[in-house]
């Protein structure tokens, strides 16, 4: 059975970390993905003396539920490809701190956003700066034994796995691979099957969400245009055997736990239909 995880933001912000991890396990997930997004609260986690960082470490020890991956989307606010040298320095610092945090918490994969820039205009110079920043982060990751995995995004930059493979080939390191998001492939109107085939042998984890062209987030599973069965069938043909992450957002809605259970069941059923797993486990 492939490890199936849930994104931190699917779970209530009001829960303690111990409760969050226990709940994920009770529902039937094998791991949780940690978020370091552009909010001050989550960036604060990168400080070595932060209380939440201590709480996370204690919760991992108590529950035994791992954080297999870390979503480093703070680079949206502080992009590696920024024209500002100050922003570049900040992005490099975030990279280094995220790698340190991953080592401390036992996180194995850091999902690197494929945004060259986000709030700035994309130029050839910003692509060069992104690659230089990625090289610095990769050097640290190699030394730490932490995998970096580029996610194809819902905007310009690395918006396809083929563009992601350009970077993988350029750096030619076992510590830099891809973290495909099949929802983003649909949102960008890419040929998902051709994209997944192009990434064969370089996919270390998978983000699963529903989406529509121009609508990459908060589309309920089964209401979007992602062809999950075909994607899972192609992944099975390609021999993919890595962690699968159900990406969804909770927004503290009263029925969020039920939605999470339904999403898990939906994804497992499609994985089984596509032959990526042998049988569907019932929701606990």
Structure description:
This protein is α/β, with parallel strands linked by helices. The protein has one domain (4-273): Divalent-metal-dependent TIM barrel enzymes (TIM Barrel, Alpha-Beta Barrel), CATH 3.20.20. The chain is built from 10 helices and 10 strands. The strands form 2 sheets. It has an 8-stranded parallel β-sheet with strand order 6-5-4-3-2-1-10-7, covered by helices on one side. Strands 8-9 form a two-stranded antiparallel sheet. It is globular, with a radius of gyration of 18 Å. The two termini are 16 Å apart. The model has no long low-confidence stretch (mean pLDDT 96).
Topology:
Elements: E1 4-7, H1 17-27, E2 31-35, H2 40-43, H3 51-63, E3 69-72, H4 85-105, E4 109-113, H5 124-144, E5 147-151, H6 161-171, E6 176-178, H7 182-187, H8 192-198, E7 206-208, E8 210-212, E9 215-219, H9 228-237, E10 244-246, H10 256-273
Parallel strand pairs: 1-2, 1-10, 2-3, 3-4, 4-5, 5-6, 7-10
Antiparallel strand pairs: 8-9
Helix pairs in contact: 1-3, 4-5, 8-9, 9-10
